[in-house]
Amino acid sequence: MSGEHATPKPQKKITLEGKVIAITGANRGIGLGIADCCLSNGADKVFSIDIGEPGEDPEAVEKRYPGQLFALKADVTSEESATKAVDEIIAKAGAIHGMVANAGRTKHKPALDFTTEEIEQLWSINLFGSFYCARVAARAFIKLEIKGSIVFTASMASYRPNKRVPSAPYGASKAGVRNVTHTLAMEWAQYGIRVNSVSPGLVKTAMTYWVPQQPDWEQQLKYYGGIPRLAEVEELGGAYVYLLSDAASYTTSIDIPVNGVIGTL
Which InterPro entries does the record match to this protein (predicted)? Predict the structure, then answer.
C-alpha cells in the first residue's frame, strides 16, 4: 500500500519523546498527575490550560522537569479562549501533538435538588468544554499536518451511578464525553487523528478527600469490592501516556476504565 494510507512503521516502545502535550485542568489533581506521567515518559513540553492560577501543587513536578511544564490561563468553556491557548502553545513550542481534555467538576446530590445553574455548570465544563478543546486541537493538528491524539477524561459514572453518591447531571455529562469520543474518532480518522477516553474510578484528589473519612468507609470498600483504596492520581497516567503515544497508532474510539475494579459489578 502506498500514498497517504500507507502503513506507518509500528512504534514498539511506549514513549512521548519529543511530543508537546496540552492538558486542561492540570494545575492540580488528576490533570497534574497526567502531566507528571507525560514528562516521566519523555514528553518534551507539557502545557496546563487552566482557569485558575497554578499555586503550589505543580512545584514538585517543575523541579524535576525544569523548563518543561508551563501554565496557561484560559476558560475551556469558551472555544475562543481555548483557541488562543492552543495558538500560544504552537507559538512557544512550534507544534502540538496531544490534547488531554481533562478539566471538569463534580457535584453529588439528589436529582430533584439540583438547580438549573448547577446543572449548566457541570455540563458547560465537563461536556461543552471538552468538546470545544477537542475541536480546537483537531483544527491545529489538521493545519500543522500532525497525526495528533485527543484523550478525554470521562468517568466510571458514565457507565453506572454510584449508589452512595449519585449525580444524574454529572453522569450524563461524562456519558456524553464517551459518546463524543466515539463520534469524533469516526469523523477525524481521515486526518490521522485518534480520539479516545479514560474513565477513572475513585481517585484521591482535593475533590474526594472526604470519601475515606466517612465512618462506614471500610464497610463501603467491602461492598464495592476490588482494590480496597482510592487511586493515586499518578496511577491513571499510564493509560493517558499509552493513548497519547505512537505505540497506540491503531487505537482509537476506545475508553479505558481505570478503577481497580471497584464498582464494576
Answer: NAD(P)-bd_dom_sf, Sc_DH/Rdtase_CS, SDR_fam
Of residues 256, 258, 131, 247, the one with CA closest to residue 188: 131
**Quick check: is 197 catalytic?**
no
Q: Is 19 a catalytic residue?
A: no
Reported confidence tier of residue 6, pLDDT bands at 50, 70, 90: low
Q: What is the DSSP string of the chain?
A: --GGGPPPPP--S---BT-EEEEET-SSHHHHHHHHHHHHTTBSEEEEEESS---STTHHHHHHSTTTEEEEE--TTSHHHHHHHHHHHHHHHS---EEEE---------GGG--HHHHHHHHIIIIIIHHHHHHHHHHHHHHHT---EEEEE--GGGTS--SSS--HHHHHHHHHHHHHHHHHHHHHGGGT-EEEEEEE-SB-STTSTTGGGSTTHHHHHHHH-SSSSPBPGGGGHHHHHHHHSGGGTT--S-EEEESTTTT--
Q: Per the residue annotation, which of 81, 130, 149, 155 is the catalytic one?
A: 155
Known catalytic membership, residue 73 = no
What pLDDT digit, counting tens, does each position of 119-178 carry? 999 999 999 999 999 999 999 999 999 999 999 999 999 998 877 778 999 999 999 999
Q: Extract the C-alpha cell encoding 27.
A: 494545575
Q: Sign of dihedral through CA atoms 176, 180, 183, 185? A: negative
pLDDT at 204: 83
Catalytic residue among 174, 204, 240, 245: 174
* pTM of structure: 0.92
Catalytic option among 170, 224, 240, 242: 170
